[in-house]
Specification:
The protein is an all-beta fold. 0% of the residues lie in helices and 70% in strands. It is built from no helices and 8 strands.
């Protein structure tokens, strides 16, 4: 929608659809990015809906938001921090506990592709959720 390098605020809308014989998943995301000199600030708001099971009768969702800040060490390498706030919506009838993760991130860019690696530790001690997760994003601009 808008470019953070040329516009006041970069923005994008992202939609992901996954499916199979026992799973249908829809994910919608709004992405905002601001570049200030060598600093990059980003915010993502995500809503996810899932239908699982033999007849896709098991339904659930997730609402999450993440915020991050990175510093461009070189034009190819950025390091920073990220926080993730997530709320599960079992059966779309109630919300689960708020879960917060945080951790460092590192990004590498070359030509028209990039990757970002983010290890995140749970800060909220919700016992039935994972204590650690690592995310790898690989992208190509065209």
């Amino acid at each position: 929608m808008s470019n953070p390098a040329t516009d006041l605020l970069g923005s994008a809308i992202y939609e992901e659809i996954r499916g199979g014989d026992r799973l249908v998943e829809l994910e919608a995301k709004i992405i905002l990015q601001e570049n200030l000199g060598r600093f990059v600030f980003a915010y993502n708001a995500t809503l996810e809906a899932r239908w699982e099971g033999d007849k896709l009768t098991e339904k659930s969702g997730e609402c999450s938001q993440s915020v991050g800040a990175s510093y461009e060490i070189t034009p190819a390498i950025l390091i920073g921090v990220e926080a993730l706030h997530q709320i599960d919506l079992p059966n779309w009838s109630r919300s689960g506990p708020a879960i917060v993760y945080a951790g460092p991130d590192v990004s590498y860019r070359h030509a028209n592709w990039y990757f970002t690696l983010t290890p995140l530790a749970q800060l909220t001690r919700v016992t039935d959720e994972v204590n650690f997760q690592a995310r790898l994003i690989v992208g190509m601009e065209f």
